[in-house]
From TrEMBL, chains A, B, C, D:
Domain Carbohydrate kinase PfkB, residue spans: 15-317
Entry superkingdom: Bacteria
This enzyme's EC code(s): 2.7.1.92
Cross-referenced NCBIfam families: myo_inos_iolC_N (TIGR04382)
Keywords: ATP-binding, Kinase, Nucleotide-binding, Transferase
Pathway in which this enzyme or protein is active: Polyol metabolism; myo-inositol degradation into acetyl-CoA; acetyl-CoA from myo-inositol: step 5/7
EC class of the enzyme, as a word: transferase
Designated name of the protein: 5-dehydro-2-deoxygluconokinase
Coiled-coil parts of chain: none
PANTHER family given in the database record: 5-DEHYDRO-2-DEOXYGLUCONOKINASE, HEXOKINASE FAMILY MEMBER
Family label: Belongs to the carbohydrate kinase PfkB family.
Function statement: Catalyzes the phosphorylation of 5-dehydro-2-deoxy-D-gluconate (2-deoxy-5-keto-D-gluconate or DKG) to 6-phospho-5-dehydro-2-deoxy-D-gluconate (DKGP).
Length: 334, 334, 334, 334
C-alpha cells in the first residue's frame, strides 16, 4: 500500500531547502580533536546531504539555499553542480556572511562529536523573497529541514516555501534535524517546529526531536503512538520516529505502524546516518515501495555511510545499496 | 443569519492578547506637537482598547500581555482591574523593558499622527510559556492583534495562543493592526500575518493592511473579492475590509458580502476609530446580530470615540451607542 | 588665586557635547507617578541644562549633539536657538532614533525618581566625524558629560572632541553625570571614565561617581584626598567632589582644598541641582573668581532650581542668583 | 644608542595581550582555496605569533587572552605551554564563544589571502577585570595588538592593561595589526588606535595602518616624517613604519630615522612576515642592540618565516636567524 502519491508530470523528483555548509573531517581519528592536526573538507548540512543522496540514487534534484560569497561558498556551488543538483536557486549572500562549519571529532566509532561554527552563516540569510515558487512548483517531493527554521530570515523563507509547496501539491517532507545552537529557547523551537509540521506529509525525526516538539504537550511517557497520532489531524500521512540502534517505527494515517530491520556496519563514525537513511527511505517512497522496503533501503544506505569517512561523498548509488543488502543477507557483512 | 457560534458554557466572553501601552495625548491640540507643552496619559494599544470597549459593553473579558515593572506598567494593570478586565495573565517583565508610548499629535481633525516609542517594550517580551492555556480555554471569543507578531518572543506567544484557542474551540479574531516599525521587512510581515490568518475565524483590516499581506500574492487591482476569497479556504467565516471614510465591506464564507452605513461625527481626531469599530462590531456578532446591524453598531461606536480626546477612556457603553444611533437617525447629530 | 586661565581671543565662552533630551515633569506632584495624569515637556539632559544655565548667565555658548528627526527633536533645536545657544553642530539623526525621555516622579521633595527611556536614542548616535573641530577651536571652556561615553558611536565622538579641545587649548570640564542604564558593566564605565578624565582640567562629580571610577583602584575608605590626588598627575587643575547635602569639596593642583557654604531652599524636587551648581560654579571660574565664591554662586543657583518645577527652564540669571544670595544672607530665605 | 631601557629586576621579558586563534593552512598550495581539500591546524593570531617568536628566541614570556571552552581552545592552551609561554592569564570563555579561524589561501607566493572567521570569537571577550595587574607588573616589555581594540569588552581589557603597564613602567609596544572586519567604521578604529598609541613607547605598523589612524589628521602626502613626529609629543620613543618590500623606516624621539637592509627569501607565502619581523626586532631592542641591527635581525626572521608553510611553528631560534644572515651575507641564499 502506498500512502502518498506524486504528480507524474513534474520535471523534478526532489527539491530541498536549507543548510549548505562545510564539514571539516578529522583525518587522524580515534583521538580527541586537540590531537588532530589535519582536516579534510566536504560539503555538508543535513538537507544538502539528503539531496546529494537522492541525486546519487538517480533522482532529478535541485536545492534552494544561500552560500557565502567566498571560496567555501564557491566550492559548495561547484560540488552541487558536479553532482547534478540544480543550483539555480542557490543564492549568493552579499552581506558578508560566512559558510557554516562542522569540525568532526571521532574519538571512537561510538564517541563522535561536532564543533560547530554557526554565527553569521549564509544559509540562515535566505529570505522569503528569494525562494523560487517556479522551482517548487516543479517538484514532486519537497523537503525542509528544522535547522533552517532557527533564525530569521531563513525561517520565513521556509514558511514561504511550505506555502508554495502546498499550493502546488508537492509531497512535503519535514526532516526535524534539531540542533540546539542558534535557537533562542526550546519554547521558540517547539512553536515553529509545530507550525511547520502541521503542513507536512511526511515527518522524520528521532524520539528526542519529537520530545522537543512536545514542550507544550502532554506526553509524559514519550509515547510514540501519542506523538504520531497528533499529526494525522493535520496533513501527515507518514510519521517516522527513530530510536537510534533500536531501529525506527513508521506510523501511517490508516492507524498502522511499521518496522523494518537494520543492517550491520563496520562503523567509522555515526555522522550522516540520519541523512543517508532519509535519502534511502524517501527514494523508496518515491518508487512506490512498501514502507518496510523503503525503511530497509534507508537502513542499508545509513550503514554504508557510517562505514565511511565522509557523509556527502559517501552517499551510495542504488547498486551500492542493493549490493550491501545482498552482502548482509548472505552473511558477507556481519 | 449567523456565521459563527459560541460555546454557551464558557465563562469569559472575550479574551485578547498583545499590546498594552500608554497614549500620551496632546492637551493643546490643532497645532504641531512641537508647540504642545502638556500631555495626558491613557492606557492604549489596539487590543487593549478593544478589550476595554468590550468590557464597557458589558462583556466578561480578560487580557494576556506583559507590562513593564515600573510606574507605567502598574498604571496599566490598575486601569485594567478598575475596568473589570481579568489581568491574571498580564505578566510583569523582569528584564528591564519599558512600556510602549504613543505621543499623539493632532494638527487638525483630519491631520493626526503618532510618535511611537517601541524599542525594548515589555509587550513584545511575552513568551509562549507565559500564555495561560486555561484562560484561553474559558474564552468564547479570542482576539489577536498583528503588532504582537512583530518580534520574538511575543510572536511565538501569539502562535501558541492560537494553538490553544483552536484546540479549545474559541472563535478567533485577527485584528490586523499593522504598524511598520519593529518589523524587519514587509516580507517578514506578510509571512507571519498569513500564517496567523490561516487559523482565524474573523479577519478585520484596512485595504492597506490586506495589501501588505499579499506581498507574495497576485492581486494587482487590490480587489476585495480576491482578497477575501483566499481566506475561506482556511478557517475564515467573516472577512471585513475597511476603506476609511468610504466604509467597510464584510465578506462571509457563503459567498455574500455586506455593507452598512456609517455615522456622522464631530471629529476631534481619527485615532481609536478602528478599535472602537472592532469592539462594537464584535459585540454585535457575539449577540447573534446580523452583520449589517453589527457593522452599524461598530460604526456608531467609532463615531463616538473620534469625537473624544482619548481612545480607551472614551469607549462607549451600550446605551451611549444606542443613543448616538438614535441621535443620528433623528437628525440631532449631523 | 586662579587655577585655570582662558584664551581671551576665542569667540565662544562655553561649548558642551552630549545628551539632549526631553523631561516630562509630573504636573500633579507629591504622589506616585501611577497617579500622575499629565506631564509637562521641557528640554533636558545634564550638559544641555548646564549650557542653558551658562547662556542664561550671559555666556556665549554652543552645543554639539544629535537630535531625533521628529517633533521632539525639532522642539529641542528650537529651544536652544530661542535661548541663544549655537546649534549649528546639533546634527539631525537619519537612522530612526528617538529622543531620550525622562519622566519625573516627585513623591515628596526628598523622594524623587526618574523613569528613563534611553533605548535607540539620538544623542548616543553622534559620530566622531560629525564633531566640528572648528567649533571646539572657538571655545574657551569645553564640557563633556559622562553619559555620552555610554555607547558607541557617541563614545568615540567624545574622545575625538577631547582631542580637538586639547589641541586648541580649551579648558576641559568633565561632568561625571553617571547613569547606570546604557552601560554594559561597571568595568566598562570605569575604563572610559578614567581614559576621559586623564585629559580634563576640571572634574566634577559626586562621591558615588568617583567611587565608580575607582573600580580598579585601591581606595577602600572612599577618601576624597586619595581620589583627587590621582588626577593631578594627569591634566587636572581642579577636582570637585560633591557630597549632597553635606556640601562639596574642591581640590586644586597646589595641594589645597576648598569648601563653601550652601544655601537654604524651599525644595520642590532634587532634580537639576547638579546641573545648576555646575553652571554657576563654572561661570564663577570663568570670571576669575575664587573657588569659594564660585562654589557659593553654584550653590545658590542650585537652590533656585530645586525650588522650581523644571530644570532647564528654571536656570537663573546673574541677578536672580545674586538676589537669592542676598535674600539668604539677609534672612529672607531660611 | 638605546632609546628605551628596561627594569632589570622584572622576572618576565615579554608579555602580550590579545588574539589567540587557529590558522588552517592549505596543504595543497599554489591554487585557489576552492581546490584545496585539506588544511593543517596551527596556533595563530599576531600577538600570539610574536610571543611564540620571543619565546623561541629565549625570552621569558607570558600571554593574556581568552580561549574558547572547546577542543580548539584547549589545543591553543596546550601549545602555549609546550612553547614555554606562561598561560596563567589565558582565561577560558564560558559564554559559548568560538575560536577565531584563519583559512589561508596560497594561490602563489605573492598572491595570498585569508578567509577569516571572527564572529563571536573568544579572544574579543576578555574583560578588563580579567586582566592580571600582577602579571603585567612583572613584564619588562608589554605588547598590545590593534585587533584586540576592535570590540568590547576586549577593547576595555586592552586599555586597562595599558594603564597597568604604564603604572608599572613596562616598555609598551603597539603592533598596529589592523584588520578591517569586526570594526564598525574607520572612524571608530582611528579614535581607539590613537587613544592607545598615545600611551605606547614603540609603535610598529605599515604605512596603510598609519594612514588609517590619520583619518582625522591632515597628512595628504602620507608623509612618514609627519606621521612619526606626532607620537613623540606623547609617549613614543620609536616609531617603525613598514613599506612592504621597499623596507621599513624607524624614527626615534631624537629626530633621527634609521633604515636597515632586508634579506632574500624563497617565498612560500607572505603571511607571518610582520609577526616574525616584530619578534626579531623587539628581541634586538631588548638586547640593547642598535636600531639597525635590530631591524636586520627582524628582517632575517621574517625571511625565514615566509619561506615556511606555517607562521607560529616556523618562528626561528637565535641560531637559525644568525645562520640565515650568515647564509645571505655569504651568498648561499640569494
Amino acid at each position: 500500500m502506498t500512502y502518498v502519491s506524486f504528480s507524474k508530470d513534474k520535471p523534478l523528483d526532489f527539491v530541498a531547502i536549507g543548510r549548505l555548509c562545510i564539514d571539516l573531517n578529522a583525518n587522524e581519528i580515534n583521538r580527541p580533536m586537540e590531537e588532530t592536526m589535519t582536516f579534510t573538507k566536504y560539503v555538508g548540512g543535513s538537507p544538502a546531504n539528503i539531496t546529494i543522496g537522492m541525486s546519487r540514487l538517480g533522482q532529478k534534484t535541485a536545492f534552494i539555499g544561500k552560500i557565502a560569497n567566498d571560496q567555501m561558498g564557491r566550492f559548495i556551488a561547484d560540488y552541487l553542480q558536479r553532482n547534478g543538483i540544480g543550483a539555480e536557486n542557490v543564492v549568493i549572500d552579499r552581506s558578508g556572511a560566512v559558510t557554516g562549519l562542522a569540525f568532526t571529532e571521532i574519538k571512537s566509532p561510538t564517541d563522535c562529536s561536532i564543533l560547530m561554527y554557526r554565527d553569521n552563516v549564509a544559509d540562515l540569510k535566505l529570505t522569503a523573497g528569494e525562494v523560487s515558487e517556479d522551482l517548487i512548483a516543479q517538484a514532486k517531493m519537497f523537503l525542509i529541514s528544522g535547522t533552517a527554521l532557527a533564525k530569521s530570515p531563513s525561517r520565513e523563507a521556509v514558511f514561504q516555501a511550505l506555502h508554495y509547496a502546498k499550493k502546488h501539491g508537492a509531497i512535503i517532507v519535514f526532516d526535524l534535524d534539531y540542533r540546539p545552537y542558534t535557537w533562542t529557547s526550546e519554547e521558540e523551537t517547539a512553536v515553529y517546529y509545530n507550525l511547520a509540521a502541521e503542513k507536512c506529509d511526511i515527518i522524520l525525526g528521532t524520539r528526542e526531536e519529537f520530545d522537543m516538539m512536545e514542550a507544550f504537550e502532554h506526553n509524559p511517557d514519550h509515547n510514540d503512538d501519542v506523538t504520531a497520532a497528533r499529526w494525522f489531524d493535520y496533513s501527515a500521512k507518514i510519521v517516522v520516529i527513530k530510536h537510534g540502534k533500536e531501529g525506527s517505527i513508521a506510523y501511517t494515517d490508516d492507524g498502522a505502524s511499521h518496522k523494518a530491520k537494520s543492517f550491520p556496519a563496520k562503523v567509522v563514525k555515526t555522522f550522516g546516518a540520519g541523512d543517508s537513511y532519509a535519502s534511502g527511505f524517501l527514494y523508496g517512497i518515491m518508487q512506490g515501495w512498501t514502507l518496510e522496503k523503503s525503511m530497509e533501503f534507508g537502513s542499508a544506505s545509513a550503514s554504508i555511510v557510517i562505514s565511511s569517512h565522509s557523509c556527502s561523498d559517501a552517499m551510495p548509488t542504488i547498486n551500492q545499496v542493493l549490493d550491501y543488502i545482498e552482502s548482509c543477507n548472505s552473511g558477507k557483512i556481519i
